[in-house]
Amino acid sequence: MWRVTLIFAFISLTMAVDKSVIIIGSGISGYSAASKLLENGFNDVIILEAEDRIGGRINTIPYDDGFIDLGAQWVHGQQGNIIYEMTHEHFDFGTTPFDDIPFTFLLSNGTKPNQELINAISKLCFEIDHKIYTGDTFTGSFGDMFIGIYDGIVANGSSPVFKDLDPVIVKMMKETSERNINGYAAIKSWFDLSAKLCAREELAQGSQHNTWRRKGFKTVFDFISKKLPDPSQHIDIESKVQLNKKVTNIKYNINDVNNKAVITCADGSAYEAKHVIFTPSLGVLKKYHESLFTPALPEQKVLAIKLYGFGAAGKIFLEFDESFWIEEGEPFVAYQFLWLDADKEEVKAANREWMLGISAFYMVDEFPNMLEAYLGGPNIEEFEASSDEKIINDCMWAFEKFLGKTLPRPKAMIKTNWLTNENFLGAYSYPSMDAEKAGVGIQELAESINNNDGKPILLFAGSAMDEKYPGNTHAGVRTGFRAADEIISIYQ
Ligand SMILES: Cc1cc2nc3c(=O)[nH]c(=O)nc-3n(C[C@H](O)[C@H](O)[C@H](O)COP(=O)(O)OP(=O)(O)OC[C@H]3O[C@@H](n4cnc5c(N)ncnc54)[C@H](O)[C@@H]3O)c2cc1C
């Protein structure tokens, strides 16, 4: 008998348990999952990344002697934001003062509207947004809710501020609010956005616009790999990443507990692992889930993939020789355009409709000669397809029209293409009316697929997979850690 025991002891000593993990995607969620696994002694970890860089929708590029962000830019919130919490004692964040300085509103006929009145309406609009995001009794779309509350307050006229308002202003401010929400939530229309599901999301408290100054959002990866604040604690995630590896199929078999998933890449290479963490965007899942998974994903998950929202947003950076937006003694944070109906028609006729999706042109922290625009709405495709020359011409046409003067051209322009890029196919997720109606959502999106012994073989992480802060970078960290913890717990 002792011989048998000895043999078993020998076998278990020599055959290490197979704890191999393949992570698909090196965005913030994949990187976070890798960090936690490596920290917990899982060394057989590979990250397969389709792009030729890490970071995913965090794309920090060198500019001047600093960096700018084509994707995520702000750490939204402080208390409750895991990114802020893990970094703020070691990083001196800057800010974009959207909450402290009123926006500069401009009319498309080149005049300035009554700023005090416009600011009061704008404040009301933000309060309505907040009410919807924090309410719990709403049904219907964000747009319907907003219009109902806004029209009620303005029509009621009980407040002296909103008495006898010019209907043109009332309409323009409503359209401006829609434009803001389109950009904020990356939606084509605010009638696609579920008010009820928005209210289920949470907001990390504190400043919403913490910036990485001239260092860019990529700094977060040094904190996740613990290179910062103490390089002696560095977890070597970098050597686990294989770039230019586009995964085309993941084959798994839940009926065989010894089964490994087989991951095939576009270049013909194949990998095997006991666990796969899938992190590409919901946009990628929507377009490719049928070819990516063998067998097909469960029905409810597929329904959630089809119906939950994933939308587009864009950015433009314009750098000038000197700023034309700072006037002596006038505080400035952003220009917001108010389009008169006749000018909207002119824009459409001149093939410049994409401009109607711009929420605002705003200052960029620590780049004094730069203005950045954020845009959402239905015309992102048109925006991405436009040449750099056209974007510059259109922007300058609009600035000159709204400011009523001739201006110098920018010395540089950079624009984004998140929707066209096959590895993203959009910007971030949103809670859609379709998902609300079908009763599917983040839970179905995020659920792991287990073998018959109840252990996960296929796990889903990514910023769309977090019920608390969906769509945000901190959601990416949370879901990456969650997937890693799920695997770690099996072996404890
Ligand atoms: C314009 C814009 C502005 C934003 N602003 C903010 C902001 O200010 N603050 C904030 O918190 N969030 C912001 N976000 C959202 C935030 O960037 C994302 O939610 C977050 O970065 C997503 O991380 P992720 O790891 O879940 O996904 P991703 O970053 O998309 O990572 C997934 C990775 O998978 C790779 N991949 C895709 N397909 C395959 C495949 N077949 N095989 C292998 N690899 C594949 C991709 O290349 C990518 O690297 C913004 C996003 C955009 C686009």
Q: How many extended strands? A: 23
- Sheet with the most strands? 6 strands, mixed
What would you say the CATH architecture of the largest domain is?
3-Layer(bba) Sandwich
Enumerate how many helices there are, as a single number: 16
Q: Radius of gyration over alpha carbons?
A: 25 Å
Helix content: 25-40%
- Overall tally of structural domains: 2
Give the helix/strand class.
Answer: alpha/beta
Shape descriptor reads globular
Largest beta sheet: strand ordering: 9-2-1-13-23-22
**What are the segments in which pLDDT stays under 50 over at least 5 consecutive residues?**
6-14
* The level-1 CATH class of the largest domain: Alpha Beta
Name every ligand kind in the structure: flavin-adenine dinucleotide
CATH topology of the largest domain: FAD/NAD(P)-binding domain
Average pLDDT for all residues: 94
What fraction of residues sit in β-strands? 15-25%
* Measured distance between first and last alpha carbons: 29 Å
Protein name: Amine oxidase domain-containing protein
Keywords: Signal
Organism: Chironomus riparius
GO molecular function, one term: polyamine oxidase activity
Explain what the structure shows.
The protein has 16 helices and 23 strands. Helix 2 (28-39) runs parallel beside helix 16 (473-490) and helix 4 (115-134) crosses helix 5. The chain has 492 residues and is an alpha/beta fold. The relative contact order is 0.19. It has 2 domains: 20-94 and 210-310 and 423-476 and 484-490, 3-Layer(bba) Sandwich (FAD/NAD(P)-binding domain); 100-205 and 314-415, Polyamine Oxidase, Chain A, domain 2, CATH 3.90.660. It has a 6-stranded mixed sheet with strand order 9-2-1-13-23-22, with helices on one face. It has a 6-stranded mixed sheet with strand order 7-17-18-19-16-20. The protein has a 4-stranded mixed sheet with strand order 12-11-10-14. The structure holds flavin-adenine dinucleotide. Flavin-adenine dinucleotide binds at residues 24-30, 48-51, 56-58, 71-74, 76, 246-247, 279-281, 284, 313, 315, 416, 418, 423-424, 427-428, 462-463, 471-473, 476. Residues 24-30, 48-51, 56-58, 71-74, 76, 246-247, 279-281, 284, 313, 315, 416, 418, 423-424, 427-428, 462-463, 471-473, 476 line the site of flavin-adenine dinucleotide (FAD).
